[in-house]
Fold:
Amino acid sequence: GENVEQHPSTLSVQEGDSAVIKCTYSDSASNYFPWYKQELGKRPQLIIDIRSNVGEKKDQRIAVTLNKTAKHFSLHITETQPEDSAVYFCAARAFSGGYNKLIFGAGTRLAVHP
Amino acid sequence: NAGVTQTPKFQVLKTGQSMTLQCAQDMNHEYMSWYRQDPGMGLRLIHYSVGAGITDQGEVPNGYNVSRSTTEDFPLRLLSAAPSQTSVYFCASSPGQSNTGELFFGEGSRLTVL
Structure:
């Protein structure tokens, strides 16, 4: 089945710096790659997603890139702010018996220091 | 609009006891799923359903049962709780059988098994 690996597990940056989180996936048939943000004590929420027919997608300070050949995708956050501090999860949609299921990476704890 | 509602929010069980985590959504979503979240392990898929009467196993299904008799409800049953099932459980739903879009998460249920 699908396996998603995420690095780094923790990331500490100064306010205003950029942060990059990287994920790799194993199933070459996966075609949908969302990123979720989970603030302390809260539920995960979608922040951006990308489909396999697109190489890059941007939304204000966040962007996601996808390299299908290498089977990896990355989240880029520019001009980081303290409110960006959270756990970020990447995910890949895998196929199984005709049904799709979303498999998550282990998460990256991002700390943005003022 | 309540979204995805999970109950209970907190539960303490003794080893061997049984219980059911309830999940209900009022968005008419066809796709529903259960994840468990453990430190350093990310969100791991337990079971999922693509519609009433249809369920399938995820990454870590052992020790858990599910059923989907209605579109709205997707309960998760622990028949004989074990300390290894201590975790935070999230129910999530998405429109469409193919889970092509955003997952909407409940607030989570923290389960402790002594």
